[in-house]
Amino acid sequence: MIYNIRKIFTILSVMVLGGALVYNCEPEPDSLGEQLFLDGAANGNESSYDLIAYNIKNNDSIRTDAFKLLDLISSSSTSSRAVLGAFNESQFGMQRASYFTQVRLATYNPDFGTNAIVDSVVLVVKPVYRADSLKATTTDENYIYPDGNIDAKKVVSTYPITKYGKAKKSLTLEVHEVSDFMNGFNDIVYSNKKFETYTPVLGSKEITDGNVSSVTITKDSDNSALFTSASPAVRIKLSNTVFQSKIINKKGQPELNDVSNFIRHFRGLKVSVTNSDGYLFQIYPNDMELIMYYKNDLVDANGVTTRPQTKYAFDLKASNMHSGYYEYDRAGAAIQTYANGNTTTGDLKLYAQGMGGNSIGVKFPVATINKLKELYQTNKAAIISAKIRIYTDKSQWSNAYPKPSSSDFTIVQRDKDAEGKPTTAYTTDYTSLGAAFIPVRAYDVDKNPAYYDFTVTQSLKDIVESTTNVDYSNRYFKIDLSQFLPNSSGALAGYAYTSRSFSPLRTVFVGSDPTNADDDTTVTPNEIKLRVTYGTKK
């Protein structure tokens, strides 16, 4: 394909200045080679080349401890995520997510007063929700606040939870007390680690409509607040009996005297779902609350005894050990047939999935590199742009589930060092172009199929245009459905800091056809390809 490159860059410059980039068009050469087209100095040609693309099996396991679920880099509670729910479909099978957390006392050796009795205990779980999609607001002007039978007004605002899966399915959340010691905050935990729990359920709550609500209760007499939930949440009532016996009745005893004793006495909570199908949703683990309401005797100066309600908030924050537990059932799913991990000729279909599911590996075949070296050495053709183009599978992934956006992918370069040890790093395009670099562009995400371009220009130039022979036999790209996470200043925290641990996304892509035998005249429709724009002097 012959491009009028100068015209393309003129148009793109106007579009950027105007604040609009349209992605449903052919991609442009990247800035690494733009200078070659200035003043009409070169002709631009685009050609497609074979790639070896294959599934990387991660054994359905990934680190899901506090260092992976909690945002300890940017210190933002809203970028910390965990996942709950269950989702079952024919391509990937069943995936179910639970969440474990330790619990600490707000202060140790607490004094609950005289004759303290638990009124209620509530675990507050705050899902990621669609704040711009208020579904309903209901007002009860005749509400009676139960603590003191106070005339009040209750306002409930309802929002849809952000879901991945079958949005209309209901889910039942359960909370159990953990019976295993969960170790410490700094311990590494993988997603296949299931901490055991006591059999009696502490509490449960059905999410019947996939919504979450915020509640405000105000006193009729003076409009003062009796209760306010800061943000929409699922409130799960827990067992009064357990907290009476394990907390209130332990007043003054060693179990409540320090952290070490307490996390061995009350070892933590598990939040899970009873379902095997429905949807997955993310929660903010650092915003969870565990609140115990109780009454005790309070004697005033006149000797009159009253029993006011007191609230005790436990500590569920980052100092605790946290982990996600993910279960899989792949029996009968299409992934079992297609995800073969063929690193020699590639897999026909590629199954990418977050939360420990498959990654995608992409390698440059020897024949492809040899063709490009011949162009470079014989025709003096300089690589202007190189992109891995990958399509969603039109037949296997035709559904209503959202397709990934440009920001939903990570790509890193894997290799071996001089001693044969595996290495991982950002691609050289990241390190060459810095913060302004856009590694992935998404096209037609509202259509079937969608496709994505991954820029690998400098990575390819390093091999093809090097004056020495570069050993790329162990080099490949690893693509995941996740995002690179920022640090406190907004820059990328590092290639190892991604959202893979809590990304519910999955998609089937078209791979490289093993029957092609490097014959570019027989191409599987939408087969993954390396699209290279190169320039030759006029």
From TrEMBL:
It comes from the Bacteria. This is DUF4270 domain-containing protein.
